Amino acid sequence: MSLRQMEYFLAVVEEASFTRAAELLHVTQPALSHQIKALEKAVGGALLERLPRGVRLTVMGRAFLPHAERSVRSAAQARRAARAAAGAEGGELHIATVHPIAVGILPDVFARWRDTHPGVGLVLHEYATTDALEEQIERGTADLAVGPPPPHWSGPVVPIGAEDIVLVVPFDDPLAGRASVRLHELADRPWVRCAMEAVVEGRPFLDWACARAGFEPRTAVRTEHTSTAVRMAAAGVGVATAPAHVVRGAVGEDCAVLTVDPPWRRELAVFSRVELTGAAAAFAELLTMCRPPGVPASGTSGHR
């Protein structure tokens, strides 16, 4: 079987039609059908069921699909890596991360990259959770990921420092004039929770931390994005937790920021399926130079 055959197969699945797939691929329908039949012969059975109106995957096709997707993505990744390593004009580096890091850390890094590597473009893939981030990197969607280091990762992992996790309250909050707060002092407060919250010992981080402080947090609202949670907290909806760099990027000076005593920090790393070379290695080095302030976390937070 060939990479082209797998690309043709994926196009037919995506379009659910040989006719539309042939148009998309700029080939004739008989040529497309011939390649699909050759692929099915190579794997030993039918991958697609031809219907009067369209096609659908067979049992073999459903099993074959994720492997074909990974192969095609890996080939595209290999082409990007080769061009980026050579600094070729039009080369691309695909970077995956979660929204808080995209908002708070990567803009400055991307700006520096454009100054030092103008021939290598950057493509950013954002995900809601670190689970989704790890899954997409495993599938070959991007060349590297930036986020909390996965607990069980077989590929290279390059530590880049740590992010400080802070509390956000409005300016008129009674605690706004303080630099830090003990968590038990917030036992009666409502909280703004985010879907991107880390998980520790099988529990959302805030539930875990508050339980250790002797109370259960009362949730006022749940959001999808950390920057939204920060905005809600600044407006007085409830206390929110967020990386310090997101607070600066999301609302600037429109809220009061408190550190927790003892401080909360979370490790960050660059990780990939394969060894970092060329542009990928250069980007990891640049990110390490631009690492957020702080020291590596020591277990006060976890990964999701």
Explain the overall architecture.
The chain is α/β, with parallel strands linked by helices and 304 residues long. 41% of the residues lie in helices and 25% in strands. It is built from eleven helices and 14 strands. It has helices at residues 3-15, 18-25, 29-43, 59-85, 99-104, 106-116, 130-138, 205-212, 226-234, 244-251, 278-289; strands at residues 48-51, 54-57, 91-98, 120-127, 144-147, 157-169, 180-181, 190-194, 199-200, 203-204, 218-223, 239-243, 256-260, 264-271. Strands 3, 4, 5, 6, 7, 8, 11, 12, 13 and 14 form a ten-stranded mixed beta sheet that branches. Strands 1-2 form a two-stranded antiparallel ribbon. β1 (48-51) and β2 form a beta hairpin. It is elongated. 38% of the residues are buried.
Defining traits:
304 residues, alpha/beta, ten-stranded mixed beta sheet, two-stranded antiparallel ribbon, 11 helices, elongated
Detail the topology: elements first, then pairings.
Layout (H helix, E strand, L loop, with lengths): L2 H13 L2 H8 L3 H15 L4 E4 L2 E4 L1 H27 L5 E8 H6 L1 H11 L3 E8 L2 H9 L5 E4 L9 E13 L10 E2 L8 E5 L4 E2 L2 E2 H8 L5 E6 L2 H9 L4 E5 H8 L4 E5 L3 E8 L6 H12 L15
**Order of helix and strand elements from N to C terminus:** HHHEEHEHHEHEEEEEEHEHEHEEH
Low-confidence stretches: 293-304
Instruction: Give the number of helices.
Output: 11
What does the average pLDDT come to?
84
Report the strand count.
14
Radius of gyration over C-alpha positions, nearest whole angstrom: 24 Å
Query: How much of the polypeptide forms β-strand, as a percent range?
Result: 25-35%
Q: What would the principal axes of the Cα set say about the shape?
A: elongated
> Which structural class should the secondary elements be placed in?
alpha/beta
Largest sheet: 10 strands, mixed
The helix fraction, in percent, is: 40-55%
Query: What is the rounded distance between the termini?
Result: 37 Å
